[in-house]
Amino acid sequence: MLLSGAIAAPSRKVLVITAADADDSATMHRPLRTLLYVDDEPDIREVVQLALSLAKSLEVHVCESGEQALAELPLIKPDLVMLDVMMPGMDGPTTMSRMRADPMLADIPVVFITAKAMPQEITRFRELGAIGVIPKPFDPMRLSEQVFSLWESAQ
Amino acid sequence: MNDDEDAQAALRRRMSELRVQFVKRTLGELGSMGELLERVRGGDAPALREMELLAHKISGTGATFGFTGISSHAGDIERMVVPEKTPGGGPSFASEDERADRIAVSLARLRAEVQLLAAEQGK
């Protein structure tokens, strides 16, 4: 059992952190404020943007390709990037690899969203460093809840 | 209604509009799929990749909008185009002609499904 207060000894003082202090430090994680969603399919971009906008605290940006995302990431500086896996040109995993190779983008957490969500694919995406995978089809009414849940788990 | 209910209602309305647009657009994309299949029959390797992307997109977006039939038939085409990418092994074919023929059958099923939905939406 932890005790509060300072215990004065002849030659030194000791500060003891209470259980209450520990609880406060556990909740001091970074909030999710800005997200970038990358998908080549315009209808899905719109659905995701509308669905995530149900979370009024979240600012949602969209890009139509990995190439565009890499160009705009330094400007947008999102807290989180959601990547469609299968895109023409630069796919999701390649986009993530390019982010990891750029010191300015390397620490941005990534979530993949994909119709290819078999267990071995999910394992591969996690080994690449993604904090989570959201399978398609997704429920637009629950999408923000899923995203925030993954974000909280990664903090 | 409060703000949250208004936002959810707006999302549902927009989803309904997008569903209609998706069916109309997919009808057009089926023409492209047919052209890609003919290119594949002619030995055009890049056409396979284009067909894979198109089938994947139709399957995934169809599923998102609740069109399970469209998603299923497009998914069949995707698996036949790139069987090596199917977990556990995809379909096998005795020849490229057989693959093209079976893709054509799935494409016909997909077209029938989309045409039926388009007709229902037109009512």
Describe this structure in words.
The complex is a heterodimer of chains A (155) and B (123). By secondary structure, chain A is α/β, with parallel strands linked by helices. Chain A is 40% helix and 19% strand. Chain A has six helices and seven strands; from the N terminus they run E-E-H-E-H-E-H-E-H-E-H-E-H. In chain A, the strands form two sheets. In chain A, strands 4-3-5-6-7 form a five-stranded parallel beta sheet, sandwiched between helices. In chain A, strands 1-2 form a two-stranded antiparallel ribbon. In chain A, strand 3, helix 2 and strand 4 form a beta-alpha-beta unit. Chain A is globular, with a radius of gyration of 20 Å. The N terminus of chain A is likely disordered. Chain B is built from four helices and no strands. Chain B is elongated. Chains A and B meet through helix 2 of A and helix 1 and helix 2 of B.
Distance from first to last alpha carbon of chain A: 27 Å
Using only C-alpha atoms, the radius of gyration of chain A works out to 20 Å
Structural class of chain A: alpha/beta
Q: Tell me the number of strands of chain B.
A: 0
Q: Sheet with the most strands of chain A? A: 5 strands, parallel
Class by SSE composition of chain B: mainly alpha
Ranges of chain B where pLDDT stays below 50 over 5 or more residues in a row are none
The most extensive interface between chains reads: A-B, 22 and 23 residues
pLDDT average of chain B, as an integer?
A: 90
Structure in a nutshell:
Chain A has 155 residues and is an alpha/beta fold. Chain A has 6 helices and 7 strands; from the N terminus they run E-E-H-E-H-E-H-E-H-E-H-E-H. In chain A, 40% of the residues lie in helices and 19% in strands.
